[in-house]
Every structure is written in structure tokens, then in C-alpha cells.
């Protein structure tokens, strides 16, 4: 398992380099000019100096190489300096946002806690709800619970977040007045009362995200459980006198979790992308809203860095899913 993990990590390096090149070329081919929002009163010679300061006057391959060095070499040094108090990155030029003129990773680090509060909570809640629903729906196939779960899952999977988000705002914020419609990103949790306020403003965005994730995971869990409940080893276990709980919750569940692990692992980076719409609806000042603002402002370093971070998450959680395969199923070997 360790050798397999090391091989995958080594293979991930050229994969991520190729992905970064594709992202860079796509953004280079995209129309737009970061200097378009500069006021018309700025003299042309000043605009030209601004373009040079942003690195817009350099060739494409030079800018790509600089971004690679900054992201893979300088930014890790900045992290080490922040943790251990060293000065490895002192004086080095970091990836700078064209829109804010500040380091991109500093802005990303500021926004990540807001996204994790919402996205992380929604994903945990969705898993805790979806797995029991999928297990019981498969065990009681075609029962009223299974029919109801199928209906709710179809609705949750079909309704887009921009519609369900507005719907819950109208119901729970405008009509009932239970929860705030706008997420306050400046709120600081330092007491029980402040935690209650944070919980209230998280309920609606978490509800919208968790509904869609629950719908998908519960269907995968149900299908996987049904596939294993009809296997010969289940009949053999029952014939040996094992209790129904042991048969279902130990033998069937463990084998059923193997394909579901892939959905859960790969869903983590995907939900960050899905949270873009939800963050826009509820005004959550997180990664999703940051990406939308960067696209609108044609801030290529910010867009390139954020999309590459999403790619890193996909590669990383693919590896985690493969490792979990070997843990859940002893028959799988990576020799």
C-alpha cells in the first residue's frame, strides 16, 4: 500500500503540471483585458507601466514558468515561514492578484474558513443522513419508506441550488423570519450566543447543499446494498445462523461501501464547485464567490490558482479513494 501511494504521488506531479498548462492556455485564449476597468482618465503611459507591473508585457511561456515557480516553490516556503517563523521566502515575488494587488494565497486562506463552515458541515450532514436512508431503503425495498426516499431523492437531485436556495430564503427568512437571508462573514464565534448565531445563519445554505448531496449518496448506497443483498455469501451467512444485524451491517455494508467511497471521495472537490452557486445566493464570502468575482474582473492569476486548487483536490481524493478500497476490501492488492 505504501509503495502504491508513493507511485501515485510521483505520477500526480506530471499530471498536475499538464493540468496547470491546460488551465493557463485556456485562460490565455479567453477574451478580456484586466486593464479594461482602469478609468479613462489614466494616461496611456501610466497604463503601459501598470501592464508591465502586472507582467502582461512578457511572453506567454515566461509568465507560465513564473507562475509554476511561484505556486510550487515560493508559496510552500511562505507556508513554512508562517508555521516555523523562518525567512526562506523573504524578498521573493508571489502570485499576485490583478484585482486586489495582494498575494492570491493570502486571500484564499482568508476565504477558506467561510467555505469550510458551510461546505464541510453540509457534506458531513449529508453523509450521516444519506447512508442510513440508503441502507434501510435497500433492506426494505419497495416499502413506503423506500418509495418516499426515492421521491425525495429525485426532487433533491433535480432541483438546482439557485432555485432551492431562493425557495428556502422566501420560506424561512422572508415568510417565517427564522433565519437570516444573508450570511455574515464578519461574525466571530467566541461564546455560546455567538455560536448560536453562526448556527442559525448556516442552516439554510447547509440545507440546500446537503439536500443535493444526500439525494445522490442515498441512491448510490441503496443500489450498492441491493446488489450485495442478493449475493451467495449473504445466504451462506444467514444459513450459518448469523443475526440479521451482523449480516447486513457487517458483511453487506462493508462490501457495499466500496463503490460509495468513490462517490464520497470525489464528491468533496465537486461540492466546492457546486458551492459557488450557493455562496452567491446566500452571499457567503467564500471560495466560490471569490472565483466568480475573479472571473468577472478578468483576474487571471486568481482564476488560475483557484481552478488549479480544485484540480489538486480531485487528484488527491482520487488517491484517497483508491487507498480506502484496499482497506475496505482485503481482496484488492496494489502490488
Kindly describe this structure.
The model has no long low-confidence stretch (mean pLDDT about 80). The chain has helices at about 1-30, 45-55, 60-85, 105-140, 145-160, 160-175, 190-230, 230-240, 245-280, 285-295, 300-330. The protein contains 11 helices and no strands. The chain is about 75% helix and about 0% strand. The longest helix has about 40 residues, at about 245-280. With about 325 residues, it is mainly α. It has a domain at about 105-295: MetI-like (MetI-like fold).
* Name of the CATH homologous superfamily of the domain at 107-296: MetI-like
Beta-strand share of residues: under 5%
Q: Overall pLDDT, averaged?
A: 78
CATH architect. name of the domain at 107-296: Orthogonal Bundle
Shape: globular
**Major beta sheet summary:** none
The top-level CATH class of the domain at 107-296 is Mainly Alpha
Cα Rg:
24 Å
CATH topology of the domain at 107-296: MetI-like fold
Give me the secondary-structure category.
mainly alpha
Give the CA-CA distance, first to last residue.
Answer: 8 Å
| Stretches with pLDDT under 50, minimum 5 residues | none
The helix/strand series, from N terminus to C terminus, equals HHHHHHHHHHH
Q: Give a count of the beta strands, DSSP E runs of length 2 or more.
A: 0
Secondary-structure map:
Layout (H helix, E strand, L loop, with lengths): L1 H28 L14 H10 L6 H25 L19 H36 L4 H15 L2 H15 L16 H38 L2 H8 L4 H39 L4 H10 L3 H29 L7
Helix pairs in contact: 1-11, 4-5, 4-7, 4-9, 5-7, 6-7, 6-9, 7-9, 9-10, 9-11, 10-11
Amino acid at each position: 500500500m505504501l509503495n502504491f501511494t508513493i507511485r501515485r504521488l510521483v505520477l500526480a506531479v506530471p499530471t498536475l503540471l499538464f493540468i496547470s498548462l491546460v488551465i493557463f492556455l485556456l485562460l490565455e485564449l479567453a477574451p478580456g483585458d484586466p486593464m479594461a476597468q482602469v478609468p479613462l482618465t489614466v494616461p496611456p503611459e501610466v497604463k503601459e507601466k501598470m501592464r508591465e507591473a502586472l507582467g502582461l508585457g512578457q511572453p506567454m511561456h515566461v509568465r507560465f514558468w513564473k507562475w509554476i515557480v511561484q505556486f510550487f516553490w515560493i508559496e510552500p516556503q511562505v507556508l513554512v515561514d508562517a508555521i516555523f517563523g523562518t525567512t526562506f521566502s523573504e524578498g521573493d515575488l508571489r502570485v499576485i492578484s490583478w484585482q486586489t494587488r495582494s498575494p492570491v494565497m493570502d486571500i484564499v486562506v482568508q476565504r477558506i474558513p467561510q467555505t469550510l463552515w458551510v461546505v464541510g458541515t453540509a457534506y458531513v450532514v449529508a453523509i450521516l443522513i444519506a447512508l442510513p436512508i440508503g441502507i434501510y431503503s435497500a433492506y426494505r425495498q419497495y416499502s413506503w419508506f423506500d418509495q418516499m426516499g426515492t421521491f425525495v431523492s429525485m426532487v433533491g437531485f433535480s432541483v438546482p441550488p439557485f432555485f432551492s436556495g431562493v425557495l428556502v430564503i422566501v420560506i424561512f427568512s422572508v415568510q417565517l423570519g427564522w433565519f437570516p437571508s444573508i450570511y455574515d462573514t464578519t461574525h466571530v464565534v467566541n461564546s455560546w450566543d455567538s455560536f448560536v448565531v453562526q448556527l442559525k445563519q448556516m442552516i439554510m445554505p447547509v440545507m440546500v447543499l446537503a439536500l443535493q448531496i444526500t439525494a445522490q449518496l442515498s441512491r448510490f448506497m441503496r443500489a450498492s446494498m441491493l446488489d450485495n443483498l442478493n449475493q451467495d455469501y449473504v445466504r451462506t451467512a444467514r444459513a450459518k445462523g448469523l443475526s440479521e444485524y451482523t449480516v447486513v451491517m457487517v458483511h453487506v455494508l462493508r462490501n457495499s461501501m466500496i463503490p460509495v467511497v468513490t462517490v464520497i471521495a470525489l464528491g468533496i472537490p465537486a461540492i466546492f464547485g457546486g458551492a459557488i452557486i450557493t455562496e452567491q445566493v446566500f452571499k457567503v464570502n467564500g471560495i466560490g464567490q471569490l472565483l466568480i468575482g475573479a472571473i468577472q474582473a478578468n483576474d487571471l492569476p486568481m482564476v488560475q490558482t483557484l481552478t488549479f486548487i480544485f484540480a489538486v483536490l480531485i487528484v488527491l481524493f482520487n488517491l484517497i479513494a483508491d487507498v480506502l478500497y484496499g482497506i475496505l476490501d482485503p481482496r484488492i492488492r496494489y502490488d
